[in-house]
Amino acid sequence: MTQDREVLVAEVTRIAEREVAPGRAGVWQVVMTGGSWSFKVFPDRGPMTGDASFERFDLFRKLEAELRPSGDDRLLVVEVALDGRGGSEFTHAFAPPGSSADTVVLDPEYRHPRHPLPGMPRPARVEPTGAPTDPEVLRQVGELLAEFVGHHRRLTGRDPEFGEVCTEEDLAAAEREMGLRLPEDVRALYLLIGDDMRESGVLGRYKLMPLGEVVSEYLDGDPGAWGWNEDLFALDRVVLEAEPPGAVRRVSRSDWWVVAFTDLAGNYAALDLDPGRAGRSGQLIAYGRDFYGPVGYVAESVTARMTAVVEKLRKDEIESLEDYGRLVVPLRDEDQDYDASESVESRDLAEVLAEIPNRERVQQLYLNDAETLDLRALTATPGLRDLSINRAGRVELHLPHTVEGLTLEAREADLSLLAGHPTLWDLTVTGLPVRVADLAALPALSFVDLSEADVDDVAALADLDVRVLTLSGDQWAVLRAAGRLPARLAGARRAGNSRVMEVVAWSDWLLSTR
Fold it and tell me: What residues are paired with 225 via a beta bridge?
């Protein structure tokens, strides 16, 4: 250990002693990745104090630079263990590539059931053709644009600021690079304005991005857009459906979502070139800071969006932000009330559900603190896909066949009632005895978290065809002792608190089974 490292370790140890509390045995951990840090003390001492989290980042930055080899971007875990008698032990370790401090990814290609597989067929209707833009569409977009410019000049006293226009050759080259053809009205906009990143408002809140940025965004990583919950251990894995139903395919990402617009405030709109059965190729969908759940449906086309803007301008329905001198048309995007959270207590579930506005649209439901629950009442929420039951007494598990994800925390429930459920693939059970035979009766089951459940035969979990498994350290130890794992396991998570070297040994064992 170099002198610099010794000084840094000594200072980190002093921080750990204060965080754990003088004279108390415990473990202090910090996870370092990408210039950010998160902290943990166990046994749990309560919330961390602010000075370790916010005033000593320079120390952690130097320590990370000292410990991390050049070019290494793996997650780093640093630990100080205190024995309560003045003794301490400093340890550090790196997580395997693609993993975190408590997870191991065994199959990097695996995604959850709503992720379209790589290489899925490309819709022939959007393949690049090299043909020029449809002249009729170009004329129509040109007329809408001319009217917009006139209203903009009338209302603001100036012309809107557009970018550098593209040529047909520019469009053809971009489309060849992406392997698709842009909608005709989008091609027309690029020929007429290039972009409107200076917030002219042609499409309301969304601004057409320069063509080069659209190409680079599309080709960055996997082609296409988003995948915001693609992590195997993300909290909200069940993909909800955008309104109106059937317009947008219910997938977490798509090779055929082309991000071409931004509101410069954390939201993006994409061209959907592979819509659902009730949708239209070229429709606009959105995702970002203001969208919770699925993507948002914006408009059936760029032309439709431009038409809506012009109709507002004809009526002088605008919001003028004088600080920026820009014109904003107040187009209200579809409100999407997908989730509901209800305290049940001693009430009947049917009574509780009757109080939820637009309950037929609810896809994600949290039922809290119920004494008893009979899930047959969920016929009142026909679109339900993700259900969380928290701190319940007795639950009658008559689960609707629409549900794909279930988080169940209860004192009493019979999991055998779920047998044969056709769509339940994501299951978390807390506080209940679990028979592995009941899990084996769920044909779609692929994600399971039993880390806070009493499993009757932990070793028998290896016989399940599950892809992602979350267990406690003790439960993983049983599987390791048995020398068995589910045959197609793609990801594993170790819940609870563990020492660094315990996690390293666990990770090494899992990786050795590949």
Answer: 254
User: Quick one: residue 263, left, alpha or beta (phi over 0 = left, psi -120 to 50 = alpha)?
Assistant: alpha
Burial 440-451 (b: 16+ CB within 10 A, else e): eebeebbbbbbb
DSSP 13-58: HHHHHHHH-TT--EEEEEEEETTEEEEEEES--SSPPHHHHHS-HH
The answer to whether residue 180 is domain-embedded is yes
Quote the pTM value.
0.85
Asked if residues 453 and 431 have their Cβ atoms less than 8 Å apart, the reply is yes
Residues 6+ apart with CB under 8 A from 180: 122, 126, 127, 128, 256, 258, 273
R_g of the chain, CA atoms, integer Å: 27
Q: Point out the least confidently predicted range of 227-241, 242-256, 485-499.
A: 227-241
Tokens of 384: 């339900």
Distance, in Å, from the CA atom of 382 to the CA atom of 361, rounded to the nearest integer, reads 8
Q: Do 204 and 349 fall within a single domain?
A: no
Q: What is the pLDDT of residues 433-467, one digit of tens each?
A: 999 999 999 999 999 999 999 999 999 999 999 99
Residues 276-289 have pLDDT tens digits of 999 999 999 998 88
Last residue of a domain, one of 94, 117, 146: 94
Distance CA 512, CA 514 (A): 6
Query: What is the C-alpha separation between 174 and 13, in angstroms, rounded?
Result: 55
Residue of 369, 370, 352, 363 whose CA lies nearest to 386: 363
**pLDDT digit string (tens) for 246-301?**
999 988 888 899 999 998 888 899 999 999 999 999 999 998 888 877 888 999 99
CA distance 107 to 446: 14
Range of the domain at 483: 339-512
